[in-house]
Amino acid sequence: MAAKIVHVEVVGKDGDALQSFYREVFGWDLDTNNPGGYGMVRQGELTGGIGAAPEGQGGHVTFYVAADNAEETLKRVEERGGKVLMPLTEVAPDTTVALFADPEGHVVGLM
Predict the structure, then answer these.
(1) Using one digit for the tens of pLDDT, what is the confidence trace for 16-70?
(2) pLDDT score, position 1
(3) Are the CB atoms for 9 and 30 separated by under 8 Å?
(4) How many domains, in total, are found in the chain?
(5) Under 8 Å CB-to-CB from 78, ≥6 apart: which residues?
(6) Could you tell me the maximum CA-CA distance found in the chain, to the nearest angstrom?
(7) Which structural domain range is residue 62 located in?
């Protein structure tokens, strides 16, 4: 089976303003009860997050794909001209992510 998109993320300079924007435009109920106030939205298997970019970084939109074998997927990324930006990293209990850039520099996440 093909890998599924499982998470999307929108971050920028003003996380609160972005959360308000998406809440008002789409009627999303954002759960911000977490460190940093990252606004989580859940729709079935798909989750999303809206918040502030890390200090000194610009905003971005990233989608995350579920990978059965993330190490093998990252190997294929590099073999095909992409670049691993962040190796597999545990960001929460039971949640490991990695980031890579495709050959044109678009950032994609693995979960």
Answers:
(1) 999 999 999 888 999 999 877 889 999 888 899 999 988 888 899 999 999 989 9
(2) 67
(3) no
(4) 1
(5) 84
(6) 42
(7) 5-110
